[in-house]
Amino acid sequence: EDQVTQSPEALRLQEGESSSLNCSYTVSGLRGLFWYRQDPGKGPEFLFTLYSAGEEKEKERLKATLTKKESFLHITAPKPEDSATYLCAVDGSARQLTFGSGTQLTVLP
Amino acid sequence: GAGVSQSPSNKVTEKGKDVELRCDPISGHTALYWYRQSLGQGLEFLIYFQGNSAPDKSGLPSDRFSAERTGGSVSTLTIQRTQQEDSAVYLCASSLEGGQGGFKQYFGPGTRLTVT
């Protein structure tokens, strides 16, 4: 059974204070690891897909990295508009995504 | 282009009533998924449709839940004899199956179901 654990559950940062979110996973045959952003009252919005260990992807202030056991979402110099819940999911043995419970990020001005 | 749409956006129903939730996927997407998100929880997979294949119903929590997809496009999730524990946000997603895009899923805004 695929499993995804995200930490921390919640994170409060000052504007400009860089940090990282963690996603640990166990899966039999990773087909892809996904990061989504979810704002209150909205559906998840796709950010990145990573397919193999060592892969990195960047988008504005966000950078996602992948190892064989975990993925990190690095946030550099965050702004208040980066406040959201960040979800990690794996596409593994089943043909549907298994999601973690998310990290709720708050960036204070 | 248009994204995934869901209706209604909010639904309040009495315990024991049946409800139908609708999802319109992105045109051309062959795969369609339903998830449930309870307060403070991650997304829980419910059911998956791919083209004309038999759906993967492995995530449906009970036989009160069913879903169909007509003409390979619009999908309806039906919950019979609703219970209070069914209260959640029901999310629909669609994706292009296979290819380099993998299973990147595009989500709709969800339907918030409240069972009183």
SSE-based structural type of chain A: mainly beta
Largest interface: A-B, 25 and 25 residues
Radius of gyration of chain B, taken over Cα atoms and rounded to an integer in Å: 14 Å
Q: Distance between the terminal alpha carbons of chain A, to the nearest Å? A: 41 Å
By helix and strand content of chain B, what is the structural category? Answer: mainly beta
CATH class of chain B: Mainly Beta
What is the CATH topology assignment of chain A? Answer: Immunoglobulin-like
Model description:
The complex is a heterodimer of chains A (109) and B (116). By secondary structure, chain A is an all-beta fold. Chain A has a single domain, classed as Immunoglobulin-like (Sandwich). Helices cover 0% and strands 58% of the residues of chain A. Chain A is built from no helices and eleven strands. In chain A, the strands form two sheets. In chain A, strands 2, 4, 5, 9, 10 and 11 form a six-stranded mixed β-sheet that branches. In chain A, a hairpin with a 2-residue loop joins strand 6 (56-59) and strand 7. The relative contact order of chain A is 0.34. Chain B has 116 residues and is mainly β. Chain B is built from no helices and ten strands. In chain B, the strands form two sheets. In chain B, strands 2, 4, 5, 8, 9 and 10 form a six-stranded mixed β-sheet that branches. In chain B, strand 4 (31-37) and strand 5 form a beta hairpin. The radius of gyration of chain B is 14 Å and the shape is globular. The model of chain B has no long low-confidence stretch (mean pLDDT 90). At the A-B interface, strand 4, strand 5, strand 9 and strand 10 of A face strand 5 and strand 9 of B.
